Amino acid sequence: MAEKILARGISACPGVVSGRAKVVLGIGDLGKIKKGDIIVLLCMFPGCAIIMDKLAGIVAERGSLTCHTSIVSREFGIPCVVAAENATKSIKDRQRIRLDAEKGEVYEC
């Protein structure tokens, strides 16, 4: 059975990880991030620096290979997909997902 693709985008930092999705719509959502989570957001913002050491992966709706999200993900070695249109709507908070940042795809687990 084929896996359901929840989002597609551009691979900014390669890697394949699985974990719980945490949809981050603002700085107030950062407190819910736990070690091993995959954040799903519009784009990185300065407040995200405090959670970088907890992240297994990043999925961003906006961005390109040279955007802040892409650069930060590569600096930290965190698998990342950017330009994943509608990711904050198609991926539910606390949903188990697999991020294949080699292919630029996010799957439902």
SSE map:
Blueprint: E1 5-8, E2 10-13, E3 16-24, E4 37-41, E5 55-60, H1 68-76, E6 80-82, H2 87-90, E7 96-100, E8 105-108
Parallel strand pairs: 3-4, 4-5, 5-6
Antiparallel strand pairs: 1-8, 2-6, 3-7, 7-8
Structure description:
This protein has 109 residues and is mainly beta. Helices cover 12% and strands 37% of the residues. The protein is built from two helices and eight strands. It has helices at residues 68-76, 87-90; strands spanning 5-8, 10-13, 16-24, 37-41, 55-60, 80-82, 96-100, 105-108. It has an eight-stranded mixed beta sheet with strand order 1-8-7-3-4-5-6-2. It is globular.
CATH fold descriptor? Glucose Oxidase, domain 1
Task: From the alpha carbons, calculate the radius of gyration and give it in angstroms.
Answer: 12 Å
How many discrete structural domains? 1
Query: What is the CATH-assigned architecture?
Result: 3-Layer(bba) Sandwich
Run of helices and strands: EEEEEHEHEE
Helicity level? 10-25%
Shape designation: globular
Instruction: Report the mean per-residue pLDDT as an integer.
Output: 96
Task: Just give the CATH class.
Answer: Alpha Beta
Distance between the termini: 12 Å
Strand content: 35-45%
Spatial strand arrangement across the major sheet: 1-8-7-3-4-5-6-2
Largest sheet composition: 8 strands, mixed
